[in-house]
Structures
1.
Amino acid sequence: MSRMKVTKIIIYILLIGAGFSFLYPFYWMILASLTPESQLGNFNLLPLEISFENYLLMFSKIPIFRSLLNSTVVAASSTTGVLVFGSMIGYALAKRDFRGRNALFFIIIFTMTLPFQITLIPNYVLMVKFRWVDTFAALIIPSLNSAFAIIMFRQVFKGIPDDLIDAARVDGCGELRIIFQVLWPNIIPTIITVGIITFMNSWNEVLWPLIVIRDENLMTMPQLVTLFAVGGRSDAQLGVKLASAVLLALPIIIAYSIFQKHFIRSMASSGLKG
Amino acid sequence: MKRISQYGIYLFLLVILSACSGGKNDRDSILEYWSSNNIGEITFSQKIVEAWNLEHPGSTLKFQPIPEGQSSEEIILAAVVGKTTPDIYSNMWQGSVEFYAKANVLIPLDTLAGFDNFIRDRCDSLTIREITSSDGHIYQFPWKINPFMTIYNKKFLAELNLDSLPETYTEYLNAAEKFKKDLTGDGYIDQWFGNTSVRLVWYQRLFNFYTLYIAASDGLPLIKNNRASFNNEYAIGVFRFLQEIYKQDYFSKEDQTAGQDPFLAGKIASKFTGPWEIEYLERYKPEGFEFDYFPIPVPDDHQGPIYTYCDPKSIVIFNTCREPQLAFEFIKTMVDKKGDLLFLQSTKQLPRRKGLDTIKAYENFFNENQRLQAFVEQAKYIRGMDNCEVITEVFDIITQEYEACVLYDMKEPEKAIADAERAVNILLGNRK
Amino acid sequence: MRIQSKKSMISYFLVSPYLVHLILFVSFPVIFSVVLTFHKWNIISEMQYVGIDNYTRLFQDRLFWKSLVNTLTFLVVHIPLQIIIALALAYILDQKIFCKGFFRATFFLPVVISGVVVTMIWKQLYGVDTGLINKLLVSIGLGKVEWMTNKNIAMISIAIMATWKNVGLYVILFLVGLQSVPQRYYEAADVEGASRWQKFRYITLPAINPTIFMVTILSTIGGFNLFIEPYIMTGGGPLNSTLSAVLYIYKQAFEFYHMGYSASLGLIFAFIIMMVVVIQKYMIEKDE
């Protein structure tokens, strides 16, 4: 066998090994969640016994579907806000001249470098003062703006020729209309990128909900699963905990299988810009 | 497009506004009472509230179980912070009361009419002294207890052919040595004499260190006159006992929250736990599984009755209550002789009432529930918690030393306890 | 003049959402954070002025410095591991491979999954007696490893898990970097008779230096933000070896309600992060 072939074979073995190590843990988790508690230590590759008892038990213990709804509402609201507001400010920074424009731009860049650790506790105190603790307001309102989104939108708007905008103005369009009706159709990739990243980050966010939400009916899904995993209500039953983890992962896995390319492209371009 | 964006904005605002309406609900009742989420306690509370509402149509009471959350302590704190506390709450851990008392969010019950006589009738002087705050007032009404004991698998202990149930440290260690086995021959132990939490959260020490300390010292406090008072032979002895257990692999060091309950699965023969375990075991136990209780192990030279920690819960009235005297009248119906009996029947937990085994009206109940006899007997020798607003941090400090000494054998017990004492004194010294 | 001011009004209207956000959730918190560090507060009582007590306590706080050391341990293991594995996988994928897209998507999958799920899975994999990794090791003749129960290994275990979770993202970034190297460089090298290794070392590596730096910075920031993994895995143990700074801040604030002290921890920690990032950026700029 030629050296090329041997190398190729080694490469494929490595790749398949790597791929296996990335997929097996998820496979194991799903399998374990479907296995009755008593059998949990025993299976390796193939299921021994399929049972839904873990799921049924979990449904009776925690409001998992409620938290799914909560996460969806929060993530959707946050993403909408970020897209809308990010476009507005990105547009103003890119295409409009006003006093303090440059200063604002630098401030935005600066806030991106500000670690959240410094604002975490005071933001919580703010939530207390506003009486927003244990409300959706605490989860949604602070997340309606994103410096990252603003920068992305500003960048892409800067690349759009001014004539397009001038023409729209001549037609009598107001600024908001220009942004959403004229410009948006031209920047779909950016919208998708910002949308996916914002939604994903909001969905997976867990520290902030842990701090501001105590009422179980308002908890987001990762928060509920976390507390279920470390708390006592699962009665130390591993299968039940894993069932909740599977449900937490499921929406993202489904979205990912369909929109893979967009996920990858979005995060890659965000990393590059960062 | 404009219309869509208009609607979008309206919808958006609607979401925000509806979210902002978190706050105190309107009540047409005069009083609001929260219980825990325990099914038995909910049943009990419903009955008591119904009875009260019948008797007092003009001053009705609204009842709800505490909103679900990670822990009831967190929910209560959030309620205090958000000023959405109920008037009466019945599941307050005795150790938390001082924290809230110092923040002036609780009503001092001793200022209410009829309190003194009522409490003296129900509780002994030791209890009353225990629940009195550092400022001399009493902010809690002691409600219920769950005394800790050692549960054991009858079959396993019988197989060990011991002379008697292990009472002292030495006897316990000997039994553990006999029971420890490597069943599968892979060089690792699979069968332990017992297990207690190795988790490093502060309240897990209540199940091991604190209970053993109470038993060894006949109920000495951890904090006295705002200084650490646990640097003594008892605490050191407890650390040494537990350290030996882990050194000899008598308890597993792994967090046993994976897989099946180890006691039911026969992986361990005993456990330090309370009466709440009974119902859980009765529900899930396999065929032929039999269990019973004996007291917490004590040092070899221990004399006299064996004390234990009782995980006490109290009833409190928050200062948002506009009718504290009325609230107290309601509380009386929860904890008078009749109320306590109803409580026993609904929850199978013990009220913190003196002389449970001397009350004629309760005889029938205890005859029907033989299992609880051991706990009633134990209830004569119990200890709750010290009055210290930073008690959670005290336990966290002890946990740090516990981990280093007991779990990882990196320190001698004397040094670990001394280090804990020093850290606690620094902590308490900072309270101005 | 009126047209000018109308134009400005519109501009200010457009940026107003962010201005509100800036004032409420950025400026005010930063200022309040500083103020809070000079007070003692447990949320339900009154705030109490204590001067620089919190700072003196901070500098003597063994646990805080330990948490910084822990973070450093994490970074020292995580970053090189990340770069080497991501680069290796990207390099392999850059060749002519079947199902490239499938592998790429597979490596990327853990990136999008919540850290909560990943940690819960690995908590089981890392179990000393019941964990799959140890079972595998035992079955091939090696001994059990105390992944999460040994104070010297625990943080390394978390770093390995974090690498597994994030490597997919960096594979993609490296792929982009690799694919941006002009083919003719390699062709020229082939003419010169360069070996595979030489090509890699002298053409590829320099070209992807910027990507390596970016991966380093992103991983560093990720390391500083470590919270949910130790929270679920170990709660900070054993012996505080997995106590990350954010976890410690969280515990001080929400287990013991030391709001003032926790704010000072946050402030100092944020300061350290910013210094590190500035140093890293400076070193990159110098290189370029």
2.
Amino acid sequence: MSELDRRDFLKLVGVGAGSAAAAGCSDHVEKLIPYVVQPEEITPGNAVFYASTCAECPASCGLHVRTREGRPVKLEGNPDHPINRGRLCARGQSGIGRTYHPDRLQRPQKRGASGELEDTTWEEAIALVAAEIAKAPQKTQVLGGQTGPTRGQLIDDFVGAVGAGGRTVYEPFAQEALREAARAVFGIETVPHFDLSGADLVLDFGSDFLESGPSPTEHAGQLADARAVDTHDDGGARVIAVSPRLSMTVSNADEWLSARAGTEGILALALARVAIENGAGDDSHRALLGGLLADFDAASAAKKTDVPAESIERVGRALAKAKSAVALPPGVALSSRRAIDTTGAVLVLNHVIGAVGSRVQVPPASAGAQPSYRETLALIQAMDAGNVSVLLLHDANPAYSIPGTAGFRDALEKVGLVVAFASLPDETTALADVVIPTHSALESWDDAQPRPGVRSIAQPTLRPLYDTRSFGDALLDIGRAVSPAASGALPTGSWRNVLEAAWADTDWTAALARGGVFTDAPAGEPTALSADVARLEVVEPKFTGSGSHTLIAFPHGFLYDGRGANLPWLQEIPDNVTKVAWASWAEISPATAESLGVEHGDVIGVETSAGRLELTAVVRGGLRDDVVAVPQGQGHTVGWWASRADEGAPGEARGVNVLDALPAGVDERGGRAWLTEKAALSNTGRSRRIPTQQTHDNQRGRQIAESISLVALAEAAHGDGHGDGHGGGHGDGHGEAHEIREPFDPADDAHADSEYRWGLGVDLDRCTGCSACVAACYVENNVPVVGETESLRVRQMAWLRIERYIGDGEPELRAGRERMGPNTESVGDTDVRHAVMMCQQCGSAPCESVCPVIATYHSEDGLNGMIYNRCIGTRYCANNCPYKVRRFNYFDNQITKWPEPMRLGLNPDVTVRGQGVMEKCTYCVQRIAEARQVAKNENRSIRDGEVVTACQQACPTQAITFGNLRDPESAVSKQAENKRGYHALHVLNTRPGTTYLAQVDRGEVEG
Amino acid sequence: MAPPPAMPVADAMRPALPDGDSQANRDLLRVMEKPSLGYFGLLGITLLAMHVAGALWALMVYLGLGVAGYTHPIFWGAYIVTFVFWVGIAHAGTLISAILFLFRAKWRNAINRGAEAMTVFAVLTAAQFLGIHVGRMWKSYFILPYPNQRGLWVNFKSPLMWDTFAISTYATISIVFFYIGLVPDLAIARDRATGWRKVLYTALALGWQGTSRQWKSHSRSVLHLSGLATPLVLSVHSVVSWDFAMSIVPGWHATIFAPYFVAGAIFSGFAMVLTVMIPVRRIYGLERYITDYHFENMARFILLTSLIVGYAYAIEYFVAWYSAVEPEQTSFWLRAFGPYWISTWTMIICNAVIPQLLWFKKIRTHIPSLFVISTFVNIGMWFERYVIIISGLSREYDPAVWGVYTPTWVELAIVAGSFGFFATLFLIFLKLFPVIAISEIKELEIHAKAHGAGAGS
């Protein structure tokens, strides 16, 4: 026994156990390599933020890109940026997906002998393109979307240097009608922009400015401030919406005039006339009464627009009375063949009510190449005629977004060499001969100038993942290879040098740190009306086709012109009004449905002169009987999520492209028109289920989404504080007073010694239902996107969702089959309540007591925590949660739902959940933990406002407040004390940490 | 009403047969003889159902619970329905063996063995569903409170925790009860068996010699176990009902649930005993031992519990209306007229209406009718749990997330497999152990001999 002493024995045991443990762990070895030379700025575990610019839409919001260890993990708004003031919409939040997209083009491709795209080298690709250009430079054309000023200049330089034929800017949703109308009304060819701050009456002629308008995040924030009831005793700004359908914007209005689609201009002029008659405007306007406005008396306008004369008179008087009213012209959905005249009429109305120069800024004439649909069509003709030998495509997907009848695809075949610059494949790159893979927006330098005075920089925030180049560098490389002369004519250095040179007039470092240079917008002088105004022909537009219904192709709130379709979150987050995801649908009214003999979910045929679509019917009351509304943006055949590739059906279109039923036609002055078709509807006799997250919008008086009238609010303010009843709101008959608050202090429900009880406030009056918070939550918390099939089973994982209720709801019940879909809305009713629903962090949580393994527990600071490792998946907690905010991983979402390289973008601060466990919102506990660590290091308490949850950060209207309920001075404590405060389903006594502030019912606008 | 004797007195008094064995021994052991082709056919079907379900279950563990029909907000589905169903079935055996034993209801002797076996098998079937249902069955041992180095402990406030204890206790007691009662019969079988059976029975019979001391210990054990098992009959299904009643789900949160579930359990348990024992009696010609009188008595139990269950249905609706709680009222209204109306009316007709036929003696003593009615009750009781669980969850507090659940074929196959599992065990039991307690029958014979006709009462 002496051979083996105790020490040797222990050593052997140690070695044996160690090797056994090592062998048991894993097959592959992962190396942890410490930073030997630590990169500047990067401390492992600490996030670094870089200012940049959002590239998701032309609004160009400012970003703060949150990076961890050199990888962007979250996009947040840049608080210094004048456009979005620190907030970011759902589209912007999802932009991060473009960098980590499984479709990413990883190296140059060229069409091989087989006709398929094959990988090639940069040298070969550049040489190939340059040689083709050199052969016939004047037959080279550039076609692409709107870019920042410097990139636009670079393209112009390129065109000049190589002697190319020209450059065409094609932007599907360009505000061409507005530009043309500004020329007609003000004599300046420019795009006016609208400022809602300080407005007291907003008249929206179908711009959908809160969802797909020119700058939704900016406008939503401005409107929310303009009508904040806590600062405006009178309820602040009123919104009157003119629209044939209840869009999200309409659902936020105080009054809805459901004018006949296309007659908005007539309504605008009639309103202008009533306003002038009631004292608005000056002599120049009164002069219009006999001219432009002569035929637009309320009675005849009422007949043409289907808006009661009484309403026109009343709203006209309100416009005259308002101190700072503003009218917004129609957006894409209502751009008819008369879009320029309609928009002109709205600009005239703005002029009459004195909005021009303040709420309507008319900047000097636009410089540089402007988007032009007419030029795009001309280019297609040139291509078709064989006059284009090389076509360089960038930042646009014309093969998808130009109606097929324009013949773009056919014309493309007659182009010698089609070169597409893109970071993600789409329908256009699929047709290209050479694909130049560019950096994603987060990998490249760029700039943007959404309006004069706002110059914004985009900077790279990670090393390029693949063998790609920025668009600028690739273009420079090609240009330099064309000929020595071209090379000499092009700017020297890299694209970054070019950009820096363009910013030479600024302090580059300061601009980079701040995200740009933001000078106050030049206070535009009140612009006089041009004499051309008289030439506006405001008449009802002509429609093609003989159908009974007007086809409205509205931009999808998330997919926009279709560019959002390949981003998983934008597909999965349900549409804000119909709650439909992953699909196309056709909205019809119940009367239409009845006449067709269809129900919600049945497939109907929509036939126009340009084509026939088959779409699942969404039967909703909030729609005129004479229209059928179809969202744009779906129907892609290329893309992991855009097509049905993620469901194992690559090449199969997801939904239908409504452009297939629209002609390529232009309005009478060359702009693009969408509202041009009459559609014949038919019952196909089939039905097709589409993923719908919410099928009941009747809250049955259960006080989930509350509303309070201004009168009741004023009474509550003068009452004794708590416990004041309020009327059921909008005087609809069930106005019996009910307790809006329950007698408990939400600050109670934390450990007695805890300094904190975290709480959240949601102001439903500020909330527009835009889903920015939903997208932010998805990205921040690594919430998986489950896809269409699973969405059909209602297994979305969203920790935060927006419920849409119509009014207080009726507890009545009807036997038989319930009608699904948006089933209690009606035309003219804007009492739509968007309720943000996430875990309420109940003080007396029903979920906690039923979990057999304590996987969900109450934390010291009042949170309702989740321990994923402990969860065995009994799902009892979810059954017992009255708010139904718990989500279960039915499959191994962490493996199957994050195709490579998406997991590079996962937030390292949040556990990725595996199969069979429950998950839910924890008020972004990782952000609380981060703030707690900082506070601890500095030996202090967490300050109010130091923890900002992801949803709060994103909210364009700042509807969400977060903080410590134990601190009576915190913003959230004050919000909890608000007279409008209530707790959802308070009768259950769950003692939530989330306080809702009731929506305010401002009533009809008084004339 | 004087019950007919369990067997003719003359038979009991008949001298021993030439081969030296009693009639009862021969009759009842004959059941265990070489199985027929039909038996193997049936066993094949049940084994197939069981193995298909097993394979699907393995697939489900691999892929995830998503292969079932769960949808937000319906997080419990056919598995929990079937779990409660089998726990309910498990109640007849203990009731017959323990409570009727304590009440000295002699008619139980003919059916207690079969019922006890069913109890054991039903509890084993039910217990599997706890594992099938959870999302991470490979971690389901977390639910057991045992000291561990991970410092994990369980939540004794959770009804699922109570459930775990209730089911495991019930399984233990019913297995012990079943086995103790089996020992004398195993000895009889041992004395007559050859080959591997001899070895098996010798081991299982624990050296039973039938001495008076052994008999004394045996009857003592049975008495004490009956005492222990009696409260379980009431408590187990009460605890199972609290899985629902302790929650705040409209349609679940009701104080009536415990007695309602216990009555339902006995109801379904007796129905299952009838459904199983009627064919067994017929196939193996056991009419001598299991008489119509036994079946009639069970029918009476079914009638009584049907009335209780029917009353519970009615009172649930009354309380929902009387509570003036809108979500509760809505839940019950939609239960009857909403998306699950078919299930609800199936449940009411099968459980509360059809059993009323048992008021008629003609039907009570007409065996084919009894078989049909008991089958309806089995169906109705499965749907009762389906209605409570699914319709309750589908229409909760937040109408925005109301949903509809439909079981997938995987779930239905696994549910069918549970019947296969149960039937497989029962079929094997038929061939391995005496389906009727021989010793107890003999006890009755001796009583009959000693006291003459009418001793069975």
